[in-house]
Specification:
2 copies of one chain form a homodimer. Chain A is of the alpha+beta class and 313 residues long. In chain A, 25% of the residues lie in helices and 28% in strands. In chain A, a hairpin with a 4-residue loop joins strand 1 and strand 2. In chain A, helix 5 runs antiparallel to helix 6. The first copy, chain A, is globular. Chains A and B meet through strand 1, strand 2, strand 3, helix 1 and strand 4 of A and strand 1, strand 2, strand 3, helix 1 and strand 4 of B. Chains A, B: Belongs to the HIT family. Chains A, B: It is an enzyme of class 3 (hydrolase). Chains A, B: Decapping scavenger enzyme that catalyzes the cleavage of a residual cap structure following the degradation of mRNAs by the 3'->5' exosome-mediated mRNA decay pathway. Chains A, B: Its main location: cytoplasm.
Chain lengths: 313, 313
Amino acid sequence: MPETPHGNGEETKSVTTSATEFKDLSKFVFKRILNVNSKTKFICAEGSLQDQEGSAVLVLEKKALDEQDLQALCTKSSELQKLFINDIFHKYNCYPDPHLNGLNATIIYPATEKLIQKYASQVIHIVEETPALYDSLTLPHILKTQNSLEWVYNILDHKSEQERIVFEDDDEKTGFVLLPDLKWDGVSVETLYLLAIIRRRDIKSLRDLTGEHLPLLKNIYQKGIKTIQDKYKLPKSRLRIYFHYQPSFYHLHIHFTSIQFEAPGTSVERGHLLSSVITNLEAYPFYYRDATLCFTLPEIDPLFAQYKAEGDF
Amino acid sequence: MPETPHGNGEETKSVTTSATEFKDLSKFVFKRILNVNSKTKFICAEGSLQDQEGSAVLVLEKKALDEQDLQALCTKSSELQKLFINDIFHKYNCYPDPHLNGLNATIIYPATEKLIQKYASQVIHIVEETPALYDSLTLPHILKTQNSLEWVYNILDHKSEQERIVFEDDDEKTGFVLLPDLKWDGVSVETLYLLAIIRRRDIKSLRDLTGEHLPLLKNIYQKGIKTIQDKYKLPKSRLRIYFHYQPSFYHLHIHFTSIQFEAPGTSVERGHLLSSVITNLEAYPFYYRDATLCFTLPEIDPLFAQYKAEGDF
């Protein structure tokens, strides 16, 4: 969590302390919307607190509905207001008992400018990376800014998360570790999400792959599928197996998710199916060395400024 | 809308007529969950109506939040129940005035078995279509089951939707029509969605494309981008331009959406970026004739049964 602007321990009288509990939303004074998602029913605003100095952020998101919620809602207290009736279809607005229809609310106070930026919606751009632009812009940027891979090496060396490993092949050339992604609860197959991390330390991303890596890729494909089939009973045809480009860390890894789960980063501008990567490399061993690969960048990313200077934006 | 089982006009006394208006949800008797989406806060159940024969379907979805909603919620009537306070982060359950926090409710009654099936969550599979499987399974299936393309020809011939056309190039080889997708409101650039439909009638899908079609594809890419830049002020770097494979109709068309909009069918198992298609065909003119292409099929699709008979599921 980001540090507060009052890190020196001194507090002025006009600042609500962190421990102040709010009883309702009346104290939040709206200034502007930072982000909205009408699909996930999420909204986030910047504002302030009544009679207080400094900025605050309010985040609201409607709660999901499960079977228990639905059953609890089927009572007289769930008021219906007719919109229209057409043949067998009845459309209503429904206003249930407030305690059966909550939102998740987060108030952040005091909120620094940096934190407000983090909650503000980011303008995203798509760029087309030719092999030449990879060499001149992307690769130097990766080498300069990449985070430590210590946590990856700790997993490979059994120094951490050893108990989380679902499958392991320790061949130095074609070996890998398979473990649940941190975002997965490890139980619900509908949202299944595992990560295969290769043992070799010399492949950064999809861009580095050539025909010589086919034994590695096929090994992960076959043994990953078999492990998930055996352990979670989800067959190959219900798995989305893919790379991210750009990845979030530059040590080659592959995502295994349930095809029914809309995991982050599965869209066409970021995902590359392992089976397509394998057939591409079989037909064209230098496909990824020679390809123009698209990926997205937030406008505030320094790499975007470099791409913008090169291209027609 | 699907037909009712009471299409003969006769109604028995025990069946609520379509015109019966519900005042609340107390009449719905729960039987089983048909579908849940915790991301979009959607749930759908099969059941019946109290003292009535036959099945009913109840669909509930939380409403999205906009700026007006958020401002209206910042009052004393939005009760907060503390979950935890950690430094500057305050987490609460929020229970607003019911009329500021509605759901969309649909009751379908009477509901046929076919309609219940339609609302039930579909098990989805991914299949790998080699060129041989395209010829032996997919193509015969398309030819046998495809819907009429009359509505597409009506647009191309200016017999319908003429006023919706945003741009047109009537070259017989490289021409196309660009118009807003029916799902788009035509206003909000955040959810921008247009469709380019080619004039030629001899290309069914991505699978048919070869190097000889590069002038057509580049023409759509360049003129589509220019039109959207001029008319909607959204530059090329903020557009996702892609094919669906399989498409929903077999007359070649290309989707233009805002990169920020998670439109349906943009995931890696269905989307193919136009810029990648162009660079693939430039480097390998028969890339799509020779490729193994993945796509998804619902388990109930007859084509899935054929793929299942061929492969290892």
